[in-house]
Amino acid sequence: MNIETMNCPTCGAGLKPKVRECDYCGTVLIITSIENLGSLKVDANLLNISIEKWKEKLNTNPLDPEANYAIAMAYMNKNLREAAYKHFLIVVEKIPEFPLGHYNLAILLFDDGNVIINSDDFNLAQKHIEYAAMLGLNEAIGFKWFFSGLKLVNVDSDESISNYKKAIENCPDIAFFNINLGHLYDYGKGNFEEAEKYYKKALELNNKSTAAYINLSYLYIKKNNYIEAEINAVLAIESFKDFLPDFRKAEAYNIYSLSLWNLGKKEEAIKNIKIAIAYDSSIAVYKQNLEVYNKKSGCFIATATMGSYDHPTVMELRHFRDNWILQKSWGERFVKWYYHYGSIVAKFIENSFVLRKISYFLIVSPLFYLARIVKK
């Protein structure tokens, strides 16, 4: 049986081989991102009718590969991934030469990067992607390079970038590839210009990508462009889908609160960091940010200036303190002195937009570059 030539599992329309979406009902047939699922284009009633139809066929023959593939894709279009999983397993067992079975199973396991790298699920996803790539599916070839790049991020960033670019060459219209390449330039290389280019390219491909808006907003925070950070954080929140994980929603509200804080909108910042905590209370940084906003913690100059305990500049200065200043004979005495007087100065800085700007240019920025020089 050649499932690749089957009709659309939802509406029954005829399909061209390897087409990504049904032209008639909008059903996703080749998944490139979990973000693309749950489309409003697909009639929910039509999906339910399709599922019931394939269930009847499975009642007759539970191992029928066509029925298992069709119902798995219907479940995926409803973002019911656990329900789809067991049906994909039957497909790849019964028809191992069918590339779309291996490919879509791999994307389900990968879950837009929410899977832990080198976990059993990730390794299984990589195995099925490589199998589908061997069978010639172009999207699988792209993801093969992408997975390889993911594994190398913390080992060889240059090789990781090379693999990400090969993934984009194979599939230039997959937003997810551009987001990850932008993230590597952003956090791995500190190349904000290249990072911004790839984040924006991702949004050209998918203007509802929550992850792209969040990353772009964080980037603008680091560039002290708080107005653009706020705009992109709002767009991230507006792009939410019902099935978006709570941790991702928390990220969006956290970055929104950071941009508001740096724009001097204290009350709005407090309101939105509380929403972030409500979505994901496990992240200590969100609670620390709330303490900063409420002036409940010893807010020191860098934290008060940047508005966040986990701002990359603050993190760099903490690293400088721990790994250089405190290693000197005078370091511990200096830090104790700073903790006493720095907290007093910080209370004035955090309440004034103008003082935060002055502090950034006269204190924080020079120290940051000194830390970079010493680190090198």
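^ that was protein a. below is b, sequence first then the tokens
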Amino acid sequence: MLTEQLVEAASSRKVGYGLDQGVEMGPVISASSKARIEALIASGEHEGASVLVDGRGKKVKNYEEGFFVFPTVMDDVPQQGEIARTEIFGPVLSMMHARSLDEAIQMVNARSYGNMACIFTRDGASARRFRYEVGAGNVGINIGVAAPLATFPFSGWGESFFGDLHAQARHGVEFYTQTKVVIERWPREWNRKF
């Protein structure tokens, strides 16, 4: 049932120029980005994934030269395949299936990237376990994209993060703050009045 709902949502998404009325998704950033995303889709298909909704090679009326990749849904993506090991940064939903919570956590933690991980569950204990054990900086519980507001830190882990501080929230303030450590010792016989 979930797969069918995802297919319906992806198939009905209105793609076009972002300022046109009713458009829900615009183009990718460049021709090379479009080519890279479409090549990754082809790679996933070649490795055995099923392409349930194919967003490659489509045009938008009046914007035929635009860099549009329509929503794509792929099922049974191999865990060791290129598409599972790559941050696509495009409109591609890659589904992998786990038979248990242990297997799902293992699948997430086996990847070198740790931008985001989400779980949909009615079980609070499973949600809590996923929250603490999964190796991702942004975790969604019953929400599909754990995209925080600007006031939250963007907490990618592993190869999804570069640097030593995140750019938002407290980390952003710390980045622009010069810190100082002062250590004092005042023996009893010395004057401590300022």
